Amino acid sequence: MKVEIYSDIACPWCYVGKTRFEQALAAFPQAASVEVVYRPFQLDPSAPEQPRGHREVLAAKYGPQAAAMDDRITALGAAEGITFDFDTVLENNSLLAHRLLRFALDSHGPAVQSRLKGRLMAAHFGEGLDIGDRGQLADAAAEAGLDRDAVTAFLAGDGLRDEVLADIDGARGLGITAVPTFVFEGKWAVQGGQESATFLQALEQVAEETGLVRLGAAAEACGDDGACAVPAEQPGE
């Protein structure tokens, strides 16, 4: 079984979803037969490369409710063993990090890509990682088991940029407008950072060749359903 997870490193619900899905996979008897691949998605493709403080960015978007949004996801993350330190989070364009994830997939396979994805999310949300900084990305990649020199050489150029952008366009073509979205066998999707039990049920249903929710449903930006959606006013819609 193949599961493709469309997510953005800058999406807190994507971090929650990854953690919960992995819990479900650990409880799934046929886990060894499941291939998990992370696909790129950008909540804000127009975000600048220059990092900005998360609190400032969120307040500009959502006003007074921004702090409550952060508090809610911080508490929810703590229950899953996830650290969200939004005072240190830096927001900027995630394309470079997505290129690195594609490089990890192509050169080392899905397991290493997943490990790198987890390392990037942990560092971004809990350690103040600048996902637009090539040196910091190379350090994170080395911690995930990749060769730092090879990563540094890759990040110095524009390799896989077109492929990643094509994947992002392909996601929109599938009707994916919110992340995380978990696509099973290219046919069925579960959207949002659902409870582990929901993911386990999805794995079991697909294994039995029964249907899941079809692609195409959208969600509000980082809403109560655990999905982060692209704002309607953003380019590329």
From TrEMBL:
InterPro entries: DSBA-like_thioredoxin_dom (IPR001853), Thioredoxin-like_sf (IPR036249). It comes from the Bacteria. Residues 3-203 form the DSBA-like thioredoxin domain. Pfam families: DSBA. This is DsbA family oxidoreductase. It comes from Actinacidiphila polyblastidii.
